[in-house]
Structure formats: C-alpha cells, structure tokens
Amino acid sequence: MSSLFTSSEEDRSITARTMRILMAFDRGNSTLTANELCRRSGLPVATTYRLMTKLVALGALERRGGGEYCIGLRLWEAVSGAPLANLRHAALPHMLRLSVRTRAAVLLGMRDADEIVLLEVLPGQVHIAALPGPGDRIPLGGCGMGLLLPAQAQNPEARTLIAEPVERAWPDNIVERAERTGHIVVEGKLNPGVTEVVAAIRGTNGRPLAALGVAGEMGRAHVPGAVHAVMGAADALSYKSY
Fold first, then answer.
1. Choosing a second label site near 86 at 20 to 30 A (CA), which of 111, 131, 210, 219?
2. Counting beta carbons within 10 angstroms of the beta carbon of residue 224, is it exposed (0 to 12), middle (13 to 18) or buried (19 or more)?
3. Model confidence at 61, in pLDDT bands (50, 70, 90)?
C-alpha cells in the first residue's frame, strides 16, 4: 500500500506546522510556555514538543528559565538580512526626520492581504492613546495605509476590496484622489481625533511596495507641510531594490 503522503507533501506539512509554531509569537507574546505554544498553534501536544525540540536545536527557538520559549538568535540573524529588514533600515533616518519635523508618530507598513503589517513605529512627541507598534496588524479599513495602498494598486480588483466602502464613508472621491496623487489624508481612522498623512513607497517596478505616514493631532494648517515632508521621504525610498 502506498504512503498517504509523498515526500514533498510531508515536507510541506512539516513546514506548515513549523510556521504555526513560529507565528504563535508576536509583540504581545514574545515568550510562551510549551502549553501556550500548543494552544496558540493549534497543534497536538506531541507534535508541538517534537517540533519545538528541533527548533531549539537549530537555534530558531531559545529555551529560557521557567520553561518559557522565545525566538532564537539564529532565526533573528536570518530575518535581519531579509528585504523587509533592509527597507526598515533604509527608512529609519527618514522616519526620524519626519518625527522631528512633524512631532507626530511615524509609521512604516506593508499590505498583507486584507491587513496592514507595521514594520516600524516611532512615537511622536504628542502621546497617542493605543498607538500600534511594530509587528501589529491593522485591517485595511482601519488606517490611512489601508486606504492608500489598495487605491494605488494597479490591479482594479485589489482596489475594490476597500474602495467601495471608503467612497461611501469619505467625501470628495478620496480613493480616486489617492490613486492619482500617491498620498492620502484621513482623520479618525487610526484613532479618534488623529489625522494621518500617508504616502506610497514604490518598488523598482513602479508598483506600491509599502507606505510611510505620520499620525497625530494636527490642524489643517499643518497638513500641507506634513504632506510635503511625507511625500519627499516616500519618494526618496522609492524605486530601489531592498
């Protein structure tokens, strides 16, 4: 009788289970016990323990005192050389200048399906309640980046996901203006009373790769200056290979 899985299918299954363990960690759960890893990954106890043992041996996980586990140094080293890390590294000087110039929080993010994943966040000089942090995910409709990136996508189907409800909620055809200008200004999406100014960072193919923006309690008189600063920083980061 032939095996239920081929070797390649077994490899894919092991990889998928391993990813479920690694993805159990996030900014709010940087250390987890074995039981917590089982619960958050949804894997059987025996499978979790077997994969955890292999990941610790490889340096992808590290065991700490008290039976807790965290992401290991070898995995951190591998991730630090990834293109996303290169983009974050290149963006940090621009983000620092934006923070000083606007006094607002500065955010760098990318789209992942129907969410925005934040790669870096610099708090502003004026406190924003419940400000998200690096690694956090925000629904597309919950922030300026989530409105801008679909509008900037060249595939019309990608824009449809957010464009229809946004057009009903925001006046003056905000999606069309965002598509045309490459930036967006919205109020009250990330947090009540918070204005976001966001611009697209384009890849070498000219398509939107990520978004850079500022968020703060800024008056209308300050918005044009923020738009100019954010657009300049996004342009400086665009059309480069990361």
1. 131
2. exposed
3. very high
> Among 75, 58, 64, which residue's Cα sits nearest to residue 33?
64
Q: Which of 177, 147, 152 is nearest to 163 (CA)?
A: 147
Side-chain-facing half-sphere of 236: CA atoms under 13 Å: 15
C-alpha distances out from residue 225 to 104, 200, 211, Å: 12, 17, 18
pLDDT, one tens digit per residue, over 168-206 is 444 446 666 777 788 999 888 888 889 999 999 999 988
Q: Is 172 left (phi over 0), alpha (psi -120 to 50) or beta?
A: left
Give the dihedral sign, CA 36/39/42/45. positive
Pinpoint the alpha helices (H) of the chain.
7-22, 34-41, 45-58, 73-80, 83-102, 144-152, 156-169, 174-181, 223-237
| 155 HSE (CA, 13 A, CB side) | 5
Q: How many CA atoms does the CB half-sphere of 14 hold within 13 Å?
A: 12
Whether pLDDT at 7 is above 60: no
**Measured distance CA(215)–CA(186) in Å, rounded:** 10
DSSP state of 26: B
Distance CA 217, CA 129 (A): 11
- Residue recorded with tokens 């004026």: 126
